[in-house]
Design goal:
- The chain is an alpha/beta fold.
- Helix content is 44%, strand content 15%.
- The protein has helices at 2-23, 39-47, 69-75, 96-110, 131-147, 170-177, 180-185, 205-215, 234-242, 260-264, 271-287, 291-297, and strands at 28-33, 54-58, 80-84, 116-120, 151-157, 188-192, 220-225, 251-257.
- Helix 8 links the parallel strand 6 (188-192) and strand 7 (220-225).
- Helix 9 (234-242) packs parallel to helix 11 (271-287).
- The radius of gyration is 20 Å and the shape is globular.
- It starts with a helix and ends with a helix.
């Protein structure tokens, strides 16, 4: 009888453990590299973090996908890769046909090593051109990725009171222009924000992500870009964003410091590498004591 009681207890533990693991509040800790020169030092810096980072690679305009094969192969061993199809600044320079061709080329060439495809970057930004053109581009990329069974991410541009045309305000643009399929089917929705560009406003991020969760109920949510060129503020900004505590369902973090290559490579003589590292450790302790092992050994997404 005593043996039966012990067996029931052990069985109960095994039934509970997988549930606890799956519900653990896994976070994504991201950085951005806007160039692949000096790739060996970049890989070493990223791989030296205690946690498995998610690295956005900004694929430069008019560059063949094959030129990134070596860098992607090297990064694949140390991090999760998010491939940005095209930076928002250059979207207007591509016709719809050219954007579609670029999508096909990049996904066909690098798809097996890119874990997440950022199908559109800062899509409501006022510099991307005609909204119908933007919609056609991101819709094609979303559908292409889905056909290939790739994870998808969309990055929005937070611009409260920082727009010229009110139609480009983030929530208004999203509600008007994002398809129902994307609202239900995107794996990740990120928000790009640079305080320097928006009167140093510090948004109520809890409210922002609560609102986004209503629009994108199935998507993981996070900060998709942050940073500053003001050297005196970099440490402050890193700590502000990487330590951000948001309780919205499916909020996963992100952050993706834009200036990682400039600020943290080589990691042995760039103090901001350590600032990011310890900000992430503080975030892990804040969210979940189990996150430590999950981020060391898991995929990180």
């Amino acid at each position: 009888m005593e043996f039966r009681k012990i067996a029931v207890i052990i069985l109960g533990i095994f039934l509970i453990l997988p549930l606890s693991y799956s519900q653990s509040n896994r976070k994504m800790y991201g950085i951005t590299i806007d160039g692949i020169n000096n790739i060996n030092n970049i890989v070493t810096a990223i791989g030296s973090h205690r946690y498995r980072m998610t690295t956005r690679i900004v694929f430069d305009e008019w560059i063949p996908a094959a030129d990134y094969t070596n860098a992607v192969n090297k990064l694949d061993s140390v991090c999760v890769i998010m491939g940005e199809l095209l930076d928002s600044y250059y979207v207007k320079d591509y016709s719809v046909a050219q954007y579609k061709a670029r999508t096909d080329e990049y996904m066909n060439t690098l798809g097996s090593k890119v874990d997440i495809w950022e199908i559109g970057n800062e899509v409501n930004g006022e510099w991307l051109g005609n909204k119908d053109s933007v919609k056609a581009k991101i819709n094609y990329a979303f559908n292409k990725a889905n056909q290939l069974q790739y994870r998808t991410a969309l990055t929005l541009y937070y611009n409260k009171d920082c727009w010229e045309n009110p139609q480009n305000e983030m929530f208004r643009w999203v509600n008007t222009n994002i398809s129902p399929e994307m609202k239900q089917g995107l794996n990740y929705v990120f928000v790009s924000y640079y305080e320097d560009d928006c009167n140093n406003l510090q948004p109520n991020w809890q409210r922002v992500f609560d609102s986004l969760h209503v629009i994108f109920p199935n998507s993981n949510l996070g900060i998709g870009e942050c940073g500053t060129t003001n050297a005196a503020l970099k440490e402050t900004y890193i700590n502000r964003y990487y330590k951000m505590h948001i309780t919205t369902p499916k909020y996963i973090g992100g952050y993706f410091w834009w200036y990682y290559r400039q600020d943290c490579v080589p990691w042995t003589n760039k103090p901001l590498w350590g600032i990011i590292e310890y900000a992430i450790r503080a975030s892990v302790l804040l969210y979940d004591s189990n996150e430590n092992e999950l981020m060391k050994d898991g995929d990180g997404y």
